[in-house]
Amino acid sequence: MWNKAGYALLYAWVTVHAVLPMRVLYVLSDILYVLIYKIAGYRLKVVRRNMKASFPDKTAAELRRMERDFYRHFSDYIVETIKLAHISLEEVQRRAHLRNPEVVNRLFDEGHTCVILLMVHYGNWEWFSASNDRFHANTYQIYRPLSNPAFDRLFIRLRTRFGSYGMKKNDTFRDIVRLHQSKSRSAIIFLADQTPSRANLHYQTTFLNQDTYLLTGPERIARKLNLPVVFLDTKKVKRGHYTIDFELLTASPKETPENRITEQYARKAEQCILRNPACWLWTHKRWKYSNT
Prior knowledge:
Blueprint: H1 2-18, H2 22-40, H3 44-54, H4 60-83, H5 89-95, E1 96-98, H6 102-109, E2 114-119, H7 125-129, E3 138-143, H8 149-159, E4 165-168, H9 172-181, E5 186-191, E6 203-207, E7 210-214, H10 217-225, E8 229-238, E9 241-250, H11 260-275
Parallel strand pairs: 1-9, 2-5, 2-8, 3-4, 3-5
Antiparallel strand pairs: 6-7, 8-9
């Protein structure tokens, strides 16, 4: 009962704020920046540790500037995600612009039924994965259920508002096999820069100047089913505006050496982050198993 009531209150609060124009939401973002960063210091130790290890050559002043820029962007990400409850499809497509979706659509037109899309927690990934009419296929987002039921239900609703579908992380392989066998055209989005579980520390490389374990699940699924893999290179153009360039990593995963796709993803993700580090999600403990 409390979960339902909590969700109703949470969604009502989000909806009230979502009707505000973006210029007003960005004023709220500026206030939120002070609350999250200056007052609460949300995961500040994690952010500082991650940044210092990733950029050992930067001065303390440069790291602090990067830190401030990150929290400003993170505050924007929060209000932009809230806006999903009310934003029109036309506006979200204008603000989250796909520069060359024909790279993906061509794969479907050539007869592929499922395509793996590899993203990074960069810019505003929620805006890009929310719409189901970007490709000649249904769009699925791999997600890890949140521990708070109200927030979990809220994010599912926001992420699927324009017709895309959620796919639980633990059901990923089974669901992709089902889609592949049914020949249902499907674009499957992985945010693959998360930390693997302790049981899945299969591949390690250097990433942002650190020994890093990477998720190998997307590559293993792609190789098993021979699904094309495409990298989504995200750029922040200006406040509230992003672009994505699609780059085909391989159309024939079974013919690529083991771990090649995962390594390609690491290098592309690193280039994306280094372009503007403030737009990456630095609050995650991505290197907690690096020394195991």
